[in-house]
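Quick one, T. Sequence first:
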Amino acid sequence: MKLSDKTIKVLKNFSSINQSILFRTGSTIRTKNAHDTIAAQAVVDEMFPFEFGIYDLNQFLGVVSLFEDPEFDFQENHVTISSGDSSSNYYYTDKDMIICPKNVTPEFQKALGFNLTESDVKSLVQAASVMQLPNIIIESEPDKQEIVITARDGKNPTSNNFTKKVGETMLTTSFKYILLVENIKLLPHSYDVSIISDPAMIVEFSSKYDKIKYWAPVEQSSQFDG
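Structure tokens:
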């Protein structure tokens, strides 16, 4: 078995959410952070034969990078990674050592949606980094019936900012959903973005490109005048 470049990129991205990961039987891989606030899942091309845990995902990916076009032989307590005359046995960890989400795709009540292009994602993340801004804010401009997303400091009304119009709304009430930049762990793709109001106020980012979804919490200072 081989791992595609897409799958390797997804795993590198997931390692920024949690250093450990539990692979379950099948093609869906999931992760969440230690605080149980950020979560992600992706459907990959590969079918994993059984459940196994990797404690240090970055280390595992580092071992994989030692090989050119490696083969993976998943055995009972380890995976053998090989290419040509070289090989490595990498041993699994006990699943009880890993913080992992439930083996199910959550169903949510979605209150609002819009699209972000890959360019939008890159420019927002870059702007937040360049100007050292802590928040990404999704809000309405009722007078214009527009939805905008802004990188800025949500606690400072005069902070530097970068804003993109991302959609339209028929709502006459205003809303402001505040996220921490540190919780935005997106791969650079286009996303369908949904505000989820039940059972908790979170934002879902869903990309068809890698069949990947992320869920990030909305800050308590968020506002909705409904």
